[in-house]
Amino acid sequence: MLEVIATALISHLGKKVIDKFWNSLQAGNAPVVDLTGSMEHTDSHAGRTLIKKEFTVPEYQEYELILGNFYLAPAIRDLILGHEIPLVLIIEETQQQVFLFEADLEEGYEIDLPHGSYSFYAFLVEKDEDDLFDAEIYAIGFPSSVDLSSVGEFPRGKDEDVWNLVDDSPKEITRGGSYILDFVLIDLDELPEFPKYFSALLGEVVEAEVDSQRYDITGAWKLQEVYDYGSTTADAYLAQVGNKLSGLIIIRDILDDGEELVIQEAVSGAVEGANFSLYGTSVRVIKGRYTDYEFDQWVGIIENNNMIIGRSEDLAGTTGEFIMERVLDG
Asked: Are 76 and 139 contacting, i.e. CB atoms less than 8 angstroms apart?
């Protein structure tokens, strides 16, 4: 859990994005931010924090509404002074999309999310610090396994029952919404292994982030690949945010019958130090006829900011070797 949260905050969002988010919040706004650094301000619906669908859902993707409230475990109720705020962190498991926003402690939140698998966390934090990293974390929130709207409050003296309501496993968001996802906020004294400050939680990940930033892969690249049955060339257009990569690769190939095949493959990946990885997530045929194209994966070493060398393999087991050379800075 600690690694998942730390990676989402630093490797995916990054310190600059977090600072932008926190500065906006300190200025009296109600921001929501994603891993690209894009930021919007939330609305209110019946007092509940409302995240605009246009911010969270790409065009043409199916989505569902997720909404819920915050419930305080008995041990933390008496600690609330009134200046604490809940932050919600949502992490999509496949593409590693991340959203961070302040929600309304009394009325809850609602957000539209594309279909996928998501992890949800909440943090009750001190609002008055200049840096989120210095803000004390009073409680961490986990999704409840039941709709708590009929409960209102946990009965006093029932702290041991709180853990029976918690389910922190990833949630599958598919057809059939809306989804009720309430958070149970638990005093950090119940979780001694969890640091009380983000600076302590993120320290080791920050160091890895700095190491990864020796390289910036953002830009256009020419890919040349020799594989088991021939060779091919491609144009890669990549964007690096933190140590995460995303983009498109346009692959051109000549089939055995002489027909030209042009494939557009959406890709995601990562930069870890000098290690480079990239994998296909979706495919669209631009030219030619092809019905069973297998997703590709490229794993290699970054020689410098202008050259990457490594091996490739598709899901059918076809292997090869590749060289990527930069043709345009990002």
From this structure: yes
